[in-house]
Design goal:
The protein has 182 residues and is α/β, with parallel strands linked by helices. The protein is 43% helix and 14% strand. It is built from 8 helices and 6 strands; from the N terminus they run αββαβββαβααααα. The chain has a 6-stranded mixed β-sheet with strand order 1-2-6-5-4-3.
Length: 182
């Protein structure tokens, strides 16, 4: 099973799942509107829904973080108990444990940036289709001295168009925005 198939399984269960296309990350978004407290962790109700969907599709759960099917392992990074830490830190520590790792959109972006996988298409897809806490993204990038590429200044515009799309009011398609950002 590839990452897009797994994301599709999660979408069939009512989750907004997106194959990030890098590092085995599956970005999950549980809301249609951005709130400043979103994206740092996957909330309990969403984790429970993921669990129910995967078990219904034949995955075996082990503890609260791991799911197994055939030779695949997917799940959640261990949560950080340190207030104010970069939410990607535990994701980066956990990547090698899993074939597929469930993350928030902000965790996905920060992880891609920290590990040098800042692919313009993957980044803009996350921001357009799910949204991310861009204020925190820029804050953690500065704090961790991560260099943002030049197209990062367009993330706010792409996210705004994505929010309009989710409301059925978008003026530009994802492909149009991607071309403008290049």
């Amino acid at each position: 099973m590839d990452a897009e198939t797994l994301a599709s399984v999660l979408r069939s269960g009512g989750l907004q799942a997106l194959d990030v296309g890098e590092l085995g990350l599956i970005s999950l978004y549980d809301d249609r509107e951005f709130s400043n407290y979103d994206y740092d962790i996957l909330p309990g109700p969403e984790r429970s829904l993921i669990r129910r969907v995967l078990i219904a599709k034949g995955w075996q759960a082990k503890g609260s973080r791991y799911f197994y099917k055939d030779s695949l392992v997917c799940g959640f990074a261990k949560p950080s108990h340190t207030l104010g830490c970069n939410p990607a830190d535990k994701v980066i520590e956990s990547i090698k444990e899993f074939d597929y790792l469930f993350v928030t959109p902000t965790q996905a972006l920060l992880t891609l940036l920290a590990l040098g996988h800042w692919n313009i298409s993957a980044v803009l897809r996350i921001v357009f289709y799910q949204g991310a806490n861009l204020e925190k993204l820029f804050q953690w990038a500065k704090q961790d001295r991560l260099e943002l590429p030049s197209f990062a200044i367009k993330l706010g515009q792409v996210q705004e168009q994505g929010q309009l799309k989710r409301k059925g009011q978008a003026h530009e398609s994802f492909n149009e925005l991607l071309e403008k950002a290049k």
